[in-house]
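[RESIDUES AND BACKBONE]
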Amino acid sequence: MQGALRLTPLALALACGLTGGCRRERPQPHAATSASAAPARARPRLDGAPLAEIGARAAREALAAADSLAREATPKIDGPAHRLLRERVATAAPFVRVWASAASEVLLGPARPGEGAGAMASLDAALDAGDAAQATAELGRVRQALRLAAVELEDAKATLDRGAELLSDAAYELGLQLLEASAASPSTTTCAIADARGTVRAIELGAAALGDPAPVLAALGPISRALDAAAAGALADRFALARATGQVGLALRVLAGARGTRVRPPVAPLVESDTAVSALTLPRPRARVRPEVAAVGARLFADRRLSRGSRRACAGCHLPTRAFADGLRTPPSLDATPISRNTPSLTYGYLSAAQRWDGRVIAPEDQALSVLHTSSEMGVTSDEIVRVVEADPDARDAMKAAFPDGVTAKNVSLAIAGYVEALARGDARIDRAARGELALSADERAGFDVFVGKGRCSRCHVPPSFGGSRPREFQVPVFAVLGVPAREGSRALDPDLGRAAVTGRDVDRHAFKTPTVRDAAATAPYFHNGAFATLEAVVDFYDRGGGVGLGVAGVTREQQDPDVRPLKLSADERRALLVFLKETLRDPSR
């Protein structure tokens, strides 16, 4: 996954105190005595002050763990000291993220996921690569950031409303940690378990500060017991655990309500009856699509006249029976320029943070217009779009009823995007099980465990979209270099530069947007170039370690996404994973 650390001017200004580059006026705890609390400052006790104090104490405990790791001669990824540090940082993280903004950006990275890695993620990467010098430098940044975090939290003007909200958000983040799908998931499952244990502790402490924690602790019970039993790194039935985090969040919001503060769920659910919101919950679109807009969009989606020579409609390349893909490696071109990229599915496109395989378009309505204008795809101008719709009295009247300014090319694009957005139903077995309407089979649960665990799929194919968009905002796309060959069985790298053609960055060479794997059984062939004909072949590609594992020339271990590595799946694990992909993520209407 692509990204580099970028600090805001505020964080840079405050972080200079961490590196000795400027003088700080405020006292701070000494590194040598980080395990003991500095004397608390006298200050007015705001409603959220006990929660900020929990965060400050957790930051000091995390600093003590970092000091212990620094004393090791050769710190190791996934060693006891490293796991303890991750657990302690995870306990502090919800409070640091909200009330220690400068330390948060250095320690955890920017608040908007995907915009860069913090020192903890960089430390893990260095340890994973065996780079001792870089690990030492990153550990130094972690320690400095934790010192600053304790000071910021001690000075925080914390409110009960924000404190209750951060705990509700922490329950949602706990679900992502259990699914190894958070923005900076560690490289090993045992470290992901450590993160989850730390977040559980933050919620326990926070609930006790809010009032009677019994309902929250009861909801946490199955998760805590599973984490305690997972000392060896095997965490089973993660679907049930992730779903349980929704009950934890709901209990926290009820507890906050008893204190007189109302907390909204982390996301607004697509299905309104779904109150126990978790990382499995499909969110509703940011703006509800008006029925009249979706209706006229459906009409235009099927209209061949919106292409040069009336040769095809949007529906010609996005077939409902194919989950709105087309079943071809690449679609035919309307001009002399061949189309080199596979037609993607449109299902749950409203959750896609970027459009096109290279992410050159952001908004879905701009995507529809770009396809209409591209000469090889639809090849019509804005004026031609308007003339076609104006010449059809029924379409013209429908557009005027749907939009105050009537027929414009932009409104046609908005209508088509509205139709596509309205396709989301949330009726797949994964969605109904998340709402408690049915139980997944043993094979489905096992396949889900492979998907989020040993298979490492959820690191890029992030629930609930199971595509490359990060919750909770779903506005940060995931791009990855996989080393996809020009065709199945080839050892030649596909020459398409992908994201680099948009950004010009070397790191983006051959990086492509991560698509959704919802309805994957209906969307063959696969990858940006349609190189692989079956899901079985796709699973084998990942199991062998992507392009590097297959010996594809032109991609190196350093260039390929670090989360793509040999998996060594057993035959039973492969079978269960395929059941999950083919059955659990399938919308029954397609």
In short: The two ends are 31 Å apart (CA to CA). Strands lie at 479-481, 511-513. The domain at 429-584 is CATH 1.10.760.10 (Cytochrome Bc1 Complex; Chain D, domain 2).
